[in-house]
Fold this sequence. Notes:
By secondary structure, the chain is of the alpha+beta class.
Amino acid sequence: xxxxETAGESHGECLVATLTGLPAGVPISLKAIDRELxxxxxxxGRGGRMKIETDQAHIVSGVRHSQTIGSPIAILIxxxxxxxxxxxxxxxxxxxxxGKNKPLTRPRPGHADLAGAxxxxxxxxxxxxxxxxxxxxxxxxxxxxxxxxxLKEFGIDVLSHVIGVGEVKLQxxxxxxxxxxxxxxxxxxxxCVDPEVEQRMKAVVDEAYKTGDTVxxxxxxxxxxVPPGLGSHISWDSRLDGKxxxxxxxxxxxxxxxxxxxxxxxxxxGSKVQDTIGYDREEHKFTRGANRAGGxxxxxxxxxxxxxxxMLKPISTLRRPLESVDLGTRDSAPxxxxxxxxxxxxxxxVIGEAMVALVLAAAMNEKFGGDSLxxxxxNYDNYLEQVKNF
Length: 390
Ligand code: EPS
């Protein structure tokens, strides 16, 4: 079965990701994985940590001679900041007085700090924030890049863009070429395809910098080349839209998800919302009047582009801290602040791509299986033939 897991803490030695269940023979490029890791680190609004880290994937198993070999893939990504934390977060307890402590006793509203401290019975939220931190998404992006490589073998591509920062919104759809150009940019500002809108987004982030605040936004993941029939209507947990929603909302700071034009649809009449069905007799295929459903109907892909949006609340670590309570004294106290990002929407788009790619890779793997890529492709081609002759 296709599955992935991550381990690692924000200031521990490294992040770890494992991915099991991919067939053998999928071409893997370290450069392509590192490019995704680099993309995750970009964007106007990132904090001081991104100046310390240059994330690089170190594959220790499952890939040989630039291809998967069917065995579990394990990836390590070093935390360069670890050298500053070895005495604060040692694996083994140091001799009395030898270590250093960096307790976090003033939980940040919106972060995992308070709920986690209560749940795990720590009167210091340090261990909670270490794992809850979005640093963990580095590991997701690394395995997501492998999922993307697998999908690419079937002609499926996953891209993203930023469609909102604070109240500034992109008021039009992006073209596929614009999304490709965005993913190839060497200078990432806010990940928006429209330079004029992007400048207005930048002004919002500037404002947050000035005032010691943070700002959220909306990203959209677009998937092209998806066959019809991934996921299923037959039970609640086989519906692909549900799986995508979980994948997106599982991302740190994401509070909402939208498949297709869900919010607009909820405010309109049915006659304006559904994507009408036509048939092209020359091409022998079904056509659709629009793609408001975001490529998913009845929990299944319908062959149109998948459109999934993630709504990101502003990061909960504010330089101008919010009201909190000290876990020791229970007196009012400003929430803890060490350093933080001000805006992370472009990074979230890249993480969203990874999560969507992982969900789709699992769905492809479930439907077409195969111990080797050759076998998977044969199964896939057979299915495409069946769809063509439907
Ligand atoms: C992050 C690394 C973290 C934070 C951020 C994401 O580094 P540090 O805590 O050392 O500054 O910048 O984490 C959070 C947003 C959070 O809420 O914890 C990263 O690599 O993306």
